[in-house]
Amino acid sequence: MNLKMMWATCLRVLMQLKNDPRSVALILVVPAILLAVIYWLYQNEVLAPGQPRTFDRVGLMMLGIFPFTVMFLVTSITMLRERVSGTLERLLTTPIHKADLLVGYALAFSIMAALQSLVATAVAYWVFNISISGNAGWVVLISVLTAVLGVALGLLCSAFATTEFQAVQFMPVVVIPQILLCGLFVARNQMNGILEAVSNVLPLSYAVDGLNEVAQHADPTRALTFDLLVMAGFVLLCLLLASLTLRRRSA
């Protein structure tokens, strides 16, 4: 891997995003706005003395789900545009290696993912006073890792789309099932056997499990470490598969 070429690719993608304010707004602002909507949904909730707010549980999970969803969408569409426009084909005629190109894209979007996670987490803590047992740093780490997972899956799925509409169609195939089965609506151990087995191989499930660990425990647990390692493994696997499926242009 050539670090200079990888960094050049990263800077080029960041400059493209800088000149696209709508994409920047989608990445940085939309998750925070959606989090505000979740807060207002439960604003008038009637609670018994000592009962935790529903927003503290749901809002915490959304700090993983929203970045994952947004980064998947932005990354898959941006990568598809690069291929359809011929930019990817021109780049691959240079000495740059596929790994340099792919890691450069992943690094650029991961930087944006980190900024997105910091903004959303800051809003959750300082504006909506979300209450959990663990440290906010672990929440940021899981949120960033989940967003990077969305980046990796977006890079992988973009190889199988030929139009932006097709890229968007991967949302109900790749993203929505993970949201349904991650434990947001029903605890995973309360699902029927088939759905629980499916949820066990979906990466977003481990992000939600990790966030629940942070919510319930003041100190890091072995379960949290396991969840983080599984998520990191999924990221590396998706990037590896993306490198194998990377094509110069759409057919």
Automatic annotation (TrEMBL):
- Looking at the keywords, is Zinc present? no
Task: Give membrane topology per the record.
Answer: Multi-pass membrane protein
Q: What is this protein called?
A: Transport permease protein
Location in or out of the cell = Cell membrane
Q: Can you name the source organism?
A: Arthrobacter cryoconiti
Q: Where does the record locate the signal sequence feature?
A: none
Q: Which family does it belong to?
A: Belongs to the ABC-2 integral membrane protein family.
Q: Which residues form the ABC transmembrane type-2 domain?
A: 22-249
UniProt key word Cell membrane: yes
